[in-house]
């Protein structure tokens, strides 16, 4: 209904968020006008499902096209799949969380919200690039941040709005690409991106890193997850495709070497780069999700956890981790 949609738009754009937003075309500030956002040069951005849309080509895919459709809601086992679980999350869990979650698709009994293992937010602003249905944004909100989740997938963002409200997490969401962030320069304290940038062509990722540096406040921190080219699972996957590069524009994995990572962050002007192990044998080893996984999945995550602890004591093991965290800072100005 137009009236309810406009009300959702009003509720989603508060003054705090409005001060952070900027036109992605010219960097000008925005104003809320007639249920949309507008810049002084007449660039107008619609708001759908309470989410401002800053791209001409938002992804609209309510059901995953790369897998068989789930049974209709009325035929699902409600004892195993509570009605409280958002249907989008239940359907997309493999695409968003990885192949370890095949058993959970259509059978989620809870939301797999990651454990926040970093410093608390203390009211700081966080940008979550590639947020999908909002799992890391919700984790950040519960850790004391003011998160802004960003993604191109509009249906995922609509689910993120619903789920964050359901879990009492105060989050905002934007529909935009990582190469052209609709935020003012020096506007956020922390940038996070998990299990996203490996599916994007590397030249575009380099531009995204430059945008990260632009929107971070001086001294601000980014935490970016990327797959390690030298990890055992990564090497096996590369072997399966003949060690060729990912096809341009495809969803195939892009693997990053340590040298590539350091060069890319330096080119973006980010400093104090620190590479640590996220996981082994997986790109999403979430120890708190063991109850959602198969026996084989549990073993992989437990092995990853053991590898993570070992890498903490012996950092050289980070070089053979399959999933890496890259921490960097924007230089502080005098």
Features:
single chain, 334 residues, alpha/beta, Rossmann fold, 2 domains, seven-stranded mixed beta sheet, three-stranded antiparallel beta sheet, 9 helices, 12 strands, 30% helix, 18% strand, globular
The level 1 CATH classification of the largest domain is: Alpha Beta
- Uncertain regions spanning at least 5 consecutive residues: none
CATH topology of the largest domain: Rossmann fold
Helix content: 25-40%
Shape: globular
Structural class by secondary-structure content? alpha/beta
Provide the CATH architecture of the largest domain: 3-Layer(aba) Sandwich
- Biggest sheet architecture: 7 strands, mixed
Name the helix and strand elements from N-terminus to C-terminus, one letter apiece: HHEEEEEHEHEHEEHEHHEHE
Identify the CATH homologous superfamily of the largest domain.
Vaccinia Virus protein VP39
**Tally of domains:** 2
Calculate the terminal CA-CA distance, rounded to whole Å. 51 Å
Give the strand content: 15-25%
Assembly state: single chain
Strands of the largest sheet, in order across it? 8-7-6-9-10-12-11
Q: Treating each run of at least 4 consecutive H or I residues as one helix, how many helices?
A: 9
Radius of gyration, Cα only, in angstroms? 20 Å
Q: Let me know the average pLDDT.
A: 93
Strand element count: 12
